[in-house]
Amino acid sequence: MFDLDLIISGLANAMTLTNICYILAGVVIGQIVGATPGLSIIMALAIAIPITFALDPLTAISFLISVNKGGTVGGAVPSILINVPGTPESAATALDGHPMAKKGKPLKALKYGLYYSFFGDLSSDIILILIAAPLAVLALQMGPVEILALMILAFTVISGLVGNSMIKGLTAAAFGFLLASVGLDPATASPRFTFGMLDLYDGLHLTALSIGALAMSELLHGMVNTRRGEKSAASIKINSKSKEDSHVSWAEVLANKFVAFRALIIGTIIGAIPGLGSTTAGFLSYSITKQSAKDPEKFGTGDPRGIAATETANSAVVGANLIPLLTLGIPGNIAAALLVSALMIHGIQPGPLLFEEQGELVYGMFGAMLIANFCNLGIAQFCMRFWAKVISAPKTVVFAAALLLCLTGAYVADGGTFAAFIAIIMAVVGYLMRMFGYSIVAFIVAFILTPQLEESIIQARLITDGDITMLVYHPIAIALLVLSVASVVFLGPRGNRKKKAKNVTAGDEKNA
């Protein structure tokens, strides 16, 4: 687990010329997608997965991670310049980034966002590297009964935290269970829900399903909500020649070091909890920073503390959301779930055994993450003015090109028209889920984890001989099940009451 030669070999593999070229390409693609309103990093990852089929596993994962990291930086560009978040996690950045740009300091705001994003991303990666292996060692001490209880806890927490209703979250997860059941039963090898179709004997392919439910449904949502003749155009130009308005000194960056460190802690914790994500981290960090400030009235007027709080926190999630994936095999968010599909395509099973079976790959991935951070910083610093022009691309062109790429990706990834047909169906299903408030995150995570859940159930039944009283010999499992019940209580009816009370209060304040 801690073989120094293995670690050095893995890091050396990450620094090959081929790997670095793919990291650079991933960062550039991610930044372009992030800077283009209407597109999303999830969409880019879903489309990019089929491209990685012919690549070495390390190169493939490095490329996808780089796309994810680049998108976090690129998403801040339209948030700051036109007050339209390029990605959901950059929405909180607009609160102070756009006012600073309107004051004639767009370059300064962009650089603030870049530097704090780099700090948050790099720091969370270092934390991941330091704690992932020890946590994996602890996870290996857990048997099938404990793993089953842990997965039940993960489902209840994700269903409760994502979306406005735990009932809808659990319904979305149940739908994921249902679709994941299509194919052959793992215990008896008998067909389930195949309806005599040979294409369904292997189940619904994750790539086609994720491209449809995530990428194409978002495109559908964007097309429906785009008005005729509407275009994305930057209303703020970044032609400032004043050094004070276009440069950020070390002293200015370090002036908010305590805000950044607090945001790093918030983002890392949020990222390590499955289901929360970058958007939650950014708004939570901003809210805490504003409430703890002596002059909260300055927030929302272009205060650099607001940019520091949001960009550090949402970028810290990028590395931290791999903690549950690498240690327990549970995706922290949708981006991590797509990385699971990429790993599985290359015959690699995520989880605590990954460090023993693929230690060189894991440490190579860690090295690639560190390289991607510095590439992200350099490319964004050099191309900042160009990314600002990307946001003026007409939505009609963007949506049409992205839709074509999605269908092509599904066709190539899963073998033909049947996969494309599944992607189209899931695009409609995903759009309806978004419209009615059902969590796509809970649905995707349930779909991915169901095979492992079924395997854990079979193993747990064999160990306990079907006797539920045997749980007394598994205190860790009992504790996890108690936490699952508690999460249903506190994130379910009680959580909904709190949300309704908050909405009523907000409505009263607005009316007043």
TrEMBL record:
Keyword Transcription listed: no
The keyword Transmembrane helix appears for this protein: yes
Keywords, ordered alphabetically: Membrane, Transmembrane, Transmembrane helix
Domain of life: Bacteria
Residue ranges annotated for the DUF112 domain, each copy included: 21-444
PANTHER family: TRICARBOXYLIC TRANSPORT PROTEIN
Listed name of the protein: Putative tricarboxylic transport membrane protein
